[in-house]
Specification:
By secondary structure, the chain is an alpha/beta fold. Among the domains are: 54 residues, no CATH class; 146 residues; 35 residues, no CATH class. It contains 21 helices and 14 strands. Strand 4, helix 10 and strand 5 form a beta-alpha-beta unit. This is F-box domain-containing protein.
Length: 491
């Protein structure tokens, strides 16, 4: 800080404010946190008043010094009245430290335990907590997991790279969780983990759950009657009867990279279950589900979602060139319920570079013709036509695995990617897409079913087209999405 800036701040601190306090408060209300901190250092009045604006959203800390400063803000030698005033405002904390070395953990250990055991319980608005690299943080701070588990107001919880210590904390959580995000660490991924069992104390309050690398169902009979949204990444196959038991009122389900099953196995399961339900008229479908997004391998064939989004990433375009698959998907009675919309999200793989687009479109239109939908969207993603590895899609959805992905890429020659003079060969399917008249494709789709009001076609990741789209009719609206988000926001 130069002498002029120091003099200005010194004068502001010791002299009356040049502007009306209300104006300063308006400035602080609309300013980023670093500006608020700077203003708080210029005046005793603003130092007190700024606390409200400093913590009007969850605070994210990425550096040890900032975390220590934050905790010290609520600890002695501050006088008790000041501490009591300050604890009224924080609504949450995201600990996302870049450095979790042994030295850092030792430095933080006692302060973290003291903060969560003695200070956070007196914060009436503290409802949001995020712990990145949770297992390492908890293992370095004995007592921290117990202190967090004893909190009674946390409603939004996010933990990444969780392990056995973190699992122990989750099992004893006393807070009425409404939203939970659980991501297992690398060393835990192939061990059986059941996050819904870990969150058994929140079974009566949990409304939104997102998990990565976990077993999707608790086999101990736990029921989550208020869960509305479930997102599962890299988990095992979710059988309908298990899901209906555990989540009887689920409205939104997203499954991604979740099963090694092929569509033939799912088709067999579907046919078997149809035979059983035909014999038992008392069997009912899982009618609560409003929207499903995922691959056919996880399509719950006992559900009746109003909006269905089928994604193919591991399998690319191959399903839509398989006559047997197309025959199953377009057979009378397969779409036995009145859907509002169907979306096919096709991520092309390297083996799809010679795909016959005309044949694929004919098959897709055959499937669309077997439905009674009002809106259809076809999304073609060709970004991965030249990818180097089949593992990239997994890591794309994994917020903590950048280093893992780099390790897997060892030996991959990236020089061509960085060379501006290197000519990349455009796959034949991309050449074919360049000739597409999207407006004509949209009209062709609309002519398939008289019930269709909306048709959307998008192409993403093309070497020359980049992103293009064609559309006729209104956008596809998911009313329930907004309703679920609003309900969580009000917690």
């Amino acid at each position: 800080m130069d002498s002029a800036e120091f003099k200005l701040k010194s004068n502001m601190y010791h002299k009356p404010l040049g502007l009306n306090l209300d104006i300063w408060l308006q400035i602080m209300e609309s300013s980023p946190k670093d500006v608020v901190v700077g203003l708080m250092g210029t005046s005793k009045t603003l130092n007190r008043a700024g606390t409200k604006y400093l913590f009007n959203s969850p605070l994210t800390v990425t550096k040890t010094a900032k975390l220590l400063s934050f905790m010290q803000f609520f600890l002695p030698p501050n006088d008790s009245q000041t501490v009591q005033f300050r604890t009224q405002f924080p609504i949450g904390l995201s600990i996302h430290l870049q450095d979790l070395s042994a030295t850092t953990c030792t430095l933080l250990s006692d302060a973290l335990v003291r903060f969560f055991a003695d200070v956070v319980p007196s914060m009436p608005r503290f409802t949001h907590l995020e712990l990145y690299r949770a297992e390492k943080l908890l293992s370095a701070s004995p007592g921290l997991g117990d202190a967090i588990a004893a909190l009674t107001r946390v409603e939004i919880l996010k933990v990444t790279q969780a392990g056995t210590i973190c699992a122990g904390m989750l099992q004893t959580m006393q807070s009425p969780l409404a939203f939970a995000y659980i991501h297992l660490g690398v060393e835990e991924r192939y061990m059986e983990r059941q996050p819904h069992c870990l969150l058994r104390n929140a079974h009566a309050t949990l409304r939104v759950l997102e998990t990565h690398w976990t077993d999707p169902i608790c086999r101990r009979g736990q029921v989550f009657p208020h869960l509305k949204r479930l997102s599962q990444y890299a988990c095992t196959f979710l059988f309908p009867e298990d899901a209906m038991r555990a989540f009887p009122n689920l409205r939104y389900l997203h499954m991604d990279q979740s099963s090694s099953q092929q569509w033939q196995e799912v088709a067999y399961y579907h046919e078997s279950h149809r035979n059983e339900t035909f014999l038992d008229p008392n069997v009912s479908y899982w009618t609560s589900l409003y929207k499903y997004s995922g691959s056919l391998n996880e399509l719950l064939l006992d559900t009746t979602p109003s909006h269905l989004i089928l994604r193919t990433s591991w399998t690319g375009a191959s399903y839509y060139l398989d006559p047997e698959y197309v025959a199953v998907m377009s057979q009378p009675g397969f779409w036995r319920w009145p859907m509002k919309s169907l979306e096919l999200m096709i991520a092309f793989r390297p083996e799809d570079k010679d795909v016959d687009l005309e044949e694929m479109m004919n098959n897709i239109l055959q499937i669309v013709g077997a439905t009674d939908i009002h809106a259809f969207r076809l999304h073609l993603d060709v970004r991965r036509l030249g990818e180097w590895s089949p593992f990239d899609r997994v890591f794309e959805d994994d917020p903590e695995s950048d280093s893992d992905a780099e390790n897997l890429k060892e030996g991959h020659n990236a020089s061509d990617d960085d060379d501006p003079f290197h000519e990349h060969e455009i796959p034949p399917v991309e050449h074919a897409l360049e000739t597409w008249d999207l407006d004509a494709v949209v009209e062709r789709i609309l002519s398939t079913r008289p019930s269709l009001e909306t048709a959307i076609v998008t192409i993403n990741g093309h070497s020359t087209l980049y992103f293009v789209d064609g559309q006729s009719g209104p956008d596809i609206a998911y009313e329930e999405d907004a309703a679920v988000e609003d309900s969580v926001a009000k917690t």
